[in-house]
Amino acid sequence: MMTPDTAALTGGFSDAPCDAARAFRAILEAMARPGRIYPVTGATPPAPLSVAAGTALLVLADGTTPVHLAGRFDTPEIRQWLTFHTGAPLTAPAEAAFAVGDWAGLLPLDAYRIGVPEYPDRSATLIVELDALKDEGARLTGPGIEHEHRLNLPEPAAFRANAALFPLGLDFIVTAGERVAALPRTTKVEDA
């Protein structure tokens, strides 16, 4: 019988080395090819965390990467699950290496670290949960995109403003169900 105390023990990778390698590869491909959608599986996290977002956290978070759970994603079940499977400390937005939530819960974006000129890599990566992930909507160009990609983004102007901060800024992983896409800060975003 599953209790709230034992539920955190489930939902990780069933074959950790292989599942983690496949998931890491999918996320790496998504970052290298912004806007392209990839399937990703492996984790079975507590709701409302999607399979893709939970899997991303399992491969990216560890005891040295503070995570912020935004809005409705800050539940006791997700806290316990994430702590058990990754050891990642939970924190406020200003200290987070990673944050996960829906778009409204993650706002305002200026609450997160964007790096400093000497160390632009000391910024946060936001995992944005959407209801659906589609290759339509905002036009994406830049490194890793041969011509253009399209992606349904919640607020293209915010992503455009983030890209204008380069080399500083946030990186984004966008998830829905078992699908993932990414937008590094180098990606240029135009309205559809």
UniProtKB/TrEMBL annotation:
InterPro entries: PhnH-like_sp, Phosphonate_metab_PhnH
Pfam families: PhnH
Residues forming coiled coils: none
BP GO terms, sorted: organic phosphonate metabolic process
Superkingdom of source: Bacteria
NCBIfam families: PhnH_redo
UniProt-recorded name of the protein: Alpha-D-ribose 1-methylphosphonate 5-triphosphate synthase subunit PhnH
